[in-house]
């Protein structure tokens, strides 16, 4: 049935110079049945005329509709086009979009890839070749080979060679099979490995399925190469996710490294300061949507200073109204800041509602980059790692290179002496707390890009933040960095081995043991906290 | 002296005010019927449950506008158990013994339902539970208006194994670590065994509530999927963890054509917080989708949108309807019908009158409450995520299906198949 239809379509092409797909093909496409639609898609792809590709594109974009009368139209917001003629027609009263399911989508992607593999645009060719690398069918082999003959770009050639090899591996010619087995060694795809392993199997009578020994050797060799590459990709993936989690932990904890680490305030509202930063990001996103829709992708950059200052102001108000009366009384600060955290959560609930808010990744932070086969690094995580490094540098510069930083260190080391030499200790306290809070706000801005933004989000990070600061050694930036990255990597290696739930427990057990052996954390303590 | 006098004055004033307050509630109690609404409006489940509270309030308003129940207006009593399971039991007790509500509509997670069960049994209350769940339960005091496993999970996996669903041969069972995912996956594993899928082809993974870092799991799924057989993921991740999960899925480039994910707890509401474009083609199995076209559904959507606007729900212009909302709507209407049939709000009489009730639901099907097992007969639909966060229906049953609360795939349930 399908073959005869293909033949019909091809015959029709041959008849008319401007190939127009037959009505039968369109009728099939309009039918509500996957098998018929697949026939139609294959027929359109085989015909390959400009008009057919347009129809396939419309199908992929979701702009192909069936009218109540059963005719196909391509609909844009203002215009209806008859796919057979390419002419405008009257906009139909009612119509149903032709939805794809995964099976149709796979077939369609393959068909479109085949039609694009000779496109003049290199990016389009590469995407098409990659698509074929994964799902090329046998009848596409001539096309792939002819594309290979003219292709100059190395990446596209590699993908095409793999696509051809996948088909050739089932060839009857043992020379072709051997060549394919060799070529497939370039892949980093585990499914290719299983395909090759099929060549090495023994049949029930003890003979190899693959008779030619050269092919078997090539297959074995390729499997080894793929295994090495997969193992490498595995380690690279785990390392990256460990560093990524570490950078998130670090961002969550850096503000606390100042408010708790340097100033000795057990700030239970730290998580809520992160939340303030995240909500500030959400508000900036809303403002950009309303007033600068053309520059929406830049909202994150604008949100960075806004998050910092909003959280800093909230922090300074907290310090002026509550915390300053409680310096040195650790347990009382713990309770007071816990109360503040509840107030902030409720405030967020009243202002923004109890539900999570949508903060979307801007386009340049979506998707990922394939650094090498099988290792895709998501952009949002790469940006967050860079951002963590930037914030760290900022904090370090502020503490070590500015007058304010010097005053903060002076006040924390010896308040009385600092006061005597003219440091305005009360104002320094407020500023230091404000900066700690502001940095928490920056953390919140970053977190909004990977996690949920809601009133209770801060509570999820408070334990992690204290974990990092206490483990690192209170008052030490280097400690926070080491602890953050260490915990991130450790969690990810454990998760890979034991699953997320057990990993979380194991990390906490590790911290309990570690703190018992070394209560001061990784790095020794300096500051007001210890003098008291 | 002066301060003490004014203090006493204030005390008497507030006491008399309180007395007046209670008098007025007594006065009200005569011509209203109190209805409890027990949904988390904060915490990790607020993303899903807030919309159910809104639906319940809307339905009550609708019923009141049409003359109420037996001539009496319904009076909603809303409490917030804050995604905190012990608090659910406390709030349920408050609703039943203090507020004396006639019925409670509420709960989403199974753990919250399990927490309130003893209270409803002890005080002989009536609970309508609107969410699909793992089954293995049948309580006199509860009516289940969501799906049992054979009305959602099993047909979804059958679809994945079908030609159109991608002929999956290997399965990743991924869930949040609590009773619903664990039990559902136990049933699914037994079901897959019965279809000849070996244990080596099933991967089971759990994450804690509120988990937000899915890098490792996605890498594991990718690895598992690349081992030579077509793989599909069955997700029972609950609550707002779904947002980071789908974000990661999109960014890691795991496409639906390669590894489709079918979710049992993700609907239109959960996808509101996500950019759905990279997720096109991933699936969800429910008994209702907002995209279903029929007059009942159009009216339901219109009514909810108008209600959201009138009540200034945050982001009222983008509100959506979903399956548990439909189940809430159906539940309240069925309870109304049963009360009118029984002629009283007395719990035992209403329970008796519920059996055999039917209601034309927004899904386009007429749903019937089973005479014996307290579950609805429901149709099953599989939907694919569209770029706009809605679902297009790719498969559905012709008729509503009877629930099997006791799964035949779990050992020891053989004797309970009649229920």
From TrEMBL, chain A:
One of its GO terms (molecular function) is transmembrane transporter activity. It comes from the Bacteria. Residues 1-19 form the signal peptide. Pfam families: BPD_transp_2 (PF02653). One of its GO terms (cellular component) is plasma membrane. It is a multi-pass membrane protein. PANTHER family: ABC TRANSPORTER PERMEASE PROTEIN, BRANCHED-CHAIN AMINO ACID TRANSPORT SYSTEM PERMEASE PROTEIN LIVH. Belongs to the binding-protein-dependent transport system permease family. LivHM subfamily. This is Urea ABC transporter permease subunit UrtB. The gene is urtB.
From TrEMBL, chain B:
Keywords: Signal. The keyword Cell cycle does not apply. SUPFAM superfamilies: Periplasmic binding protein-like I. Gene3D superfamilies: 3.40.50.2300. Residues 1-29 form the signal peptide. GO terms for biological process: amino acid transport. The keyword Transmembrane helix does not apply. This is Urea ABC transporter substrate-binding protein. PANTHER family: ALIPHATIC AMIDASE EXPRESSION-REGULATING PROTEIN, PTHR47628. It comes from Nitrogeniibacter mangrovi.
């Amino acid at each position: 049935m399908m073959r005869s239809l293909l033949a019909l379509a091809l015959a029709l092409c041959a008849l008319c110079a401007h190939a127009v797909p037959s009505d039968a093909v369109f009728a099939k496409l309009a039918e509500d049945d996957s098998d018929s639609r697949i026939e139609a898609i294959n027929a359109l792809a085989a015909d390959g005329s400009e008009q057919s590709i347009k129809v396939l594109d419309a199908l992929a974009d979701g702009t192909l509709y069936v009218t109540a009368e059963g005719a196909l139209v391509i609909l844009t917001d203002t215009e209806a086009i008859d796919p057979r003629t390419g002419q405008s027609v009257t906009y139909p009263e009612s119509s149903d979009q032709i939805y794809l399911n995964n099976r149709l989508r796979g077939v369609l992607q393959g068909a479109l890839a085949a039609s694009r593999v000779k496109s003049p645009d290199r990016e389009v060719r590469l995407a098409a070749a990659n698509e074929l690398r994964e799902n090329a069918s046998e009848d596409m082999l001539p096309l792939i080979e002819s594309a290979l003959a003219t292709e100059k770009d190395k990446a596209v050639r590699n993908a095409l060679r793999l696509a051809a090899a996948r088909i050739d591996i089932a060839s009857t010619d043992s020379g072709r099979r051997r060549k394919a087995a060799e070529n497939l060694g370039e892949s980093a795809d585990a499914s290719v490995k299983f395909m090759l392993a099929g060549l090495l199997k023994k049949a029930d009578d003890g003979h190899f399925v693959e008779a030619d020994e050269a092919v078997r050797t090539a297959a074995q060799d390729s499997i080894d190469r793929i295994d090495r590459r997969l193992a490498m990709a595995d380690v690279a993936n785990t390392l990256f996710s460990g560093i990524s989690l570490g950078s998130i932990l670090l961002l969550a904890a850096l503000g606390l490294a100042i408010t708790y680490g340097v100033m000795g305030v057990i700030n239970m509202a730290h998580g809520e300061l992160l939340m303030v930063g995240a909500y500030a990001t959400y508000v900036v996103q809303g403002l950009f949507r309303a007033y600068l829709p053309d520059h929406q992708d830049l909202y994150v950059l604008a949100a960075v200073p806004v998050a910092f200052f909003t959280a800093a102001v909230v922090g300074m108000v907290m310090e002026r109204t509550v915390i300053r009366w409680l310096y040195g009384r650790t347990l009382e600060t713990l309770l007071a800041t816990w109360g503040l955290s509840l107030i902030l959560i409720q405030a967020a609930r009243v202002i923004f509602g109890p539900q999570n808010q949508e903060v979307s990744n801007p386009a340049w932070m979506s998707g990922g980059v394939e650094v090498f086969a099988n290792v895709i690094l998501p952009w949002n995580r790469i940006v967050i790692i860079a951002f963590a490094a930037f914030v760290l540098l900022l904090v370090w510069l502020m503490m070590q290179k500015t007058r304010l930083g010097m005053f903060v260190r002076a006040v924390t080391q010896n308040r009385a002496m600092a006061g005597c030499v003219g440091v305005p200790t009360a104002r320094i306290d407020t500023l230091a707390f404000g900066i700690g809070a502001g940095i928490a706000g920056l953390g919140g801005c970053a977190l909004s890009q990977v996690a949920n933004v809601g009133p209770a989000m801060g509570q999820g990070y408070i334990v992690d933040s204290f974990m990092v600061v206490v483990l690192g050694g209170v008052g030490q930036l280097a400690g926070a960095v080491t602890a953050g990255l260490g915990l991130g990597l450790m969690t990810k290696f454990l998760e890979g081995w034991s699953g997320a739930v057990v990993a979380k427990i194991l990390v906490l057990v590790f911290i309990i043991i570690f703190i018992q052996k070394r209560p001061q954390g990784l790095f020794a303590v300096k500051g007001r906290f210890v003098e008291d | 002296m002066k301060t003490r006098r004014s203090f006493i004055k204030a005390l008497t004033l507030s006491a008399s005010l309180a007395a007046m307050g209670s008098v007025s509630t007594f006065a009200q109690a005569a011509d209203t019927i109190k209805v409890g609404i027990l949904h988390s409006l904060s915490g990790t489940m607020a993303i899903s449950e807030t919309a159910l509270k809104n639906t319940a309030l809307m339905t009550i308003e609708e019923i009141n506008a049409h003359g109420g129940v037996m001539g009496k207006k319904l009076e909603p009593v809303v409490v917030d158990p804050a995604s905190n399971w012990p608090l659910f039991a406390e709030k349920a007790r408050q609703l039943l013994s203090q507020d004396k509500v006639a019925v409670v509509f509420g709960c989403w997670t199974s753990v919250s339902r399990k927490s309130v069960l003893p209270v409803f049994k002890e005080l002989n209350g009536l609970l309508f539970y609107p969410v699909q769940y793992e089954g293995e339960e049948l309580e006199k005091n509860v009516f289940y208006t969501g799906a049992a496993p054979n009305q959602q999970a099993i047909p979804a996996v059958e679809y994945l194994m079908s030609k159109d669903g991608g002929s999956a041969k290997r399965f990743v069972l991924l869930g949040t670590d609590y009773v619903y995912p664990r039990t559902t996956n136990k049933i699914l594993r037994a079901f897959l065994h019965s279809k000849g899928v070996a244990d080596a082809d099933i991967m089971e993974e759990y994450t804690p509530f509120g988990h937000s870092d899915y890098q490792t799991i996605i890498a594991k799924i990718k690895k598992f999927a690349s081992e030579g057989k077509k793989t599909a993921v069955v997700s029972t991740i609950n609550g707002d963890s779904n947002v980071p999960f789908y974000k990661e899925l999109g960014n890691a480039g795991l496409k639906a054509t390669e590894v489709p994910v079918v979710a049992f707890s993700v609907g239109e509401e959960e996808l509101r917080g996500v950019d759905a474009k990279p997720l096109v083609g991933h699936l969800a199995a429910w008994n209702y989708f907002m995209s279903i076209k029929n007059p009942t559904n159009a009216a339901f959507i219109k009514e909810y949108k108008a209600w959201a606007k009138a009540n200034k729900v945050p982001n009222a212009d983008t509100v959506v309807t979903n399956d548990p909302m439909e189940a809430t709507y159906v539940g309240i209407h069925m309870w109304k019908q049963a009360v009118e049939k029984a002629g009283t709000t007395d719990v035992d009489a209403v329970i008796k009158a519920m059996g055999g009730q039917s209601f034309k639901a927004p899904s386009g099907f007429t749903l019937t409450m089973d005479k014996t097992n307290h579950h609805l007969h429901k149709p099953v639909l599989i939907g694919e995520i569209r770029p706009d966060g809605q679902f297009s229906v790719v498969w559905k049953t012709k008729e509503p299906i009877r629930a099997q609360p006791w799964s035949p795939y779990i050992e020891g349930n053989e004797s309970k198949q009649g229920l």
